[in-house]
């Protein structure tokens, strides 16, 4: 295990969707001559998107094509890696010859570079998809800065891509049990996961953690420590993972979001994950990493 670089993620192995950062070469986003030259080069690779979905090959891996094989749509400069320039294009029409899938469907099988490029591209695609008009005057928007700014053609107001921070936390108690909840809106009857929620305006990440725990299960917690973060552009989240230590253990579920919540010892969680009484979240999620990090190893089963 190598010492963590100050600009890399401290988790080893890193989280699935934040394990690789391509060079975003932000300076080039405003260099129209450079952008045109890169687009004219058939070695440039372009990721095809339509309506927030990604074009994949028959092998269910993201389809990268040369610029001449794309169609009309907004171009996004993603960056560079290994001497290759990567763009995404938000196609006006579905691409011929490729299946379109959600990021969620292929996230678990992505390679390092593809994972980094896709969370960037899909987040941008979702932002473009849901920002069709100026938020001040309702005017028409033009894509600028290689897709990273939308400017109102009528009043000039600029909009920038947004990311909505959400906290996700594993609560433990002084007996080192962990608290997992079942979301009553989940399609998985035995699905249990960590608590989570969106950060509100004017709130720190730490306060969001303790507020969400109190609201969802009625437990008072503090001693909030950072675990790691990864983008979750479905549609626009940054998931920020934490541990929190409970000061009270009585559970009162909100009944609105959380239908059931329980404390688990390690032995209980292993037994119930093995017999299927508890089904744990997917391996791409921070929730899974938090649970297995607390457990101290891999647990069986996944949704
Ligand atoms: Zn406007």
Distance between the termini: 30 Å
Main beta sheet, described?
6 strands, mixed
CATH fold label of the largest domain: Nucleoside Triphosphate Pyrophosphohydrolase
CATH architecture of the largest domain: Alpha-Beta Complex
The ligands bound in this entry are:
zinc ion
Classified in CATH, the superfamily of the largest domain is: Nucleoside Triphosphate Pyrophosphohydrolase
Question: In the CATH hierarchy, what is the class of the largest domain?
Answer: Alpha Beta
Task: State the secondary-structure class.
Answer: alpha+beta
Number of strands: 15
Counting DSSP H or I runs of 4 or more residues, the number of helices is 6
Write the layout of secondary structure elements.
Blueprint: H1 32-39, E1 45-50, E2 53-56, E3 64-65, E4 73-81, E5 84-91, E6 99-101, H2 103-106, H3 112-130, E7 141-144, E8 149-152, E9 158-159, E10 164-172, E11 178-183, E12 195-198, H4 205-217, E13 221-232, E14 237-246, E15 258-264, H5 266-275, H6 286-295
Parallel strand pairs: 1-5, 10-14
Antiparallel strand pairs: 1-2, 1-3, 2-6, 4-5, 7-8, 8-9, 10-11, 10-12, 11-15, 13-14
The chain binds zinc ion (ZN).
Zinc ion binds at residues 134, 136-137, 139, 152, 154-155, 157.
Give a short synopsis of this structure:
By secondary structure, the protein is α+β, with helices and mostly antiparallel strands.
């Amino acid at each position: 295990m190598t010492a963590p670089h100050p600009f890399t993620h401290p988790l080893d192995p890193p989280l699935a969707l934040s394990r690789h950062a391509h060079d975003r070469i932000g300076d080039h986003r405003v260099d129209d001559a450079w952008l045109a030259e890169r687009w004219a080069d058939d070695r440039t690779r372009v990721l095809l998107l339509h309506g927030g979905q990604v074009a994949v090959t028959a092998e269910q891996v993201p389809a990268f094509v040369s610029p001449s094989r794309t169609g009309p749509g907004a171009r996004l400069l993603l960056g560079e890696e290994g001497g290759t320039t990567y763009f995404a294009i938000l196609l006006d029409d579905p691409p011929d010859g490729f299946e379109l899938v959600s990021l969620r469907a292929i996230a678990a099988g992505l390679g390092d570079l593809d994972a980094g490029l896709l969370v960037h591209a899909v987040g941008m695609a979702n932002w473009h998809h849901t920002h069709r008009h100026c938020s001040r005057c309702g005017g028409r928007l033009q894509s600028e800065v290689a897709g990273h700014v939308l400017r109102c053609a009528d009043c000039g107001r600029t909009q920038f891509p947004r990311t909505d921070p959400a906290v996700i936390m594993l609560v433990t108690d002084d007996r080192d049990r962990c608290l997992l909840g079942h979301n009553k809106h989940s399609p998985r009857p035995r699905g249990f996961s960590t608590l989570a929620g969106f950060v509100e305006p004017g709130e720190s990440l730490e306060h969001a953690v303790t507020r969400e725990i109190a609201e969802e299960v009625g437990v008072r917690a503090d001693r909030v420590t950072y675990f790691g973060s990864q983008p979750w552009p479905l549609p626009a989240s940054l998931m920020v993972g934490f541990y929190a230590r409970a000061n009270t253990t009585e559970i009162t579920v909100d009944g609105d979001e959380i239908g059931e919540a329980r404390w688990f010892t390690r032995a209980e969680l292993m037994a119930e994950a093995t017999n299927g009484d508890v089904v744990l979240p997917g391996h791409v999620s921070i929730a899974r990493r938090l649970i297995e990090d607390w457990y101290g190893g891999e647990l069986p089963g996944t949704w």
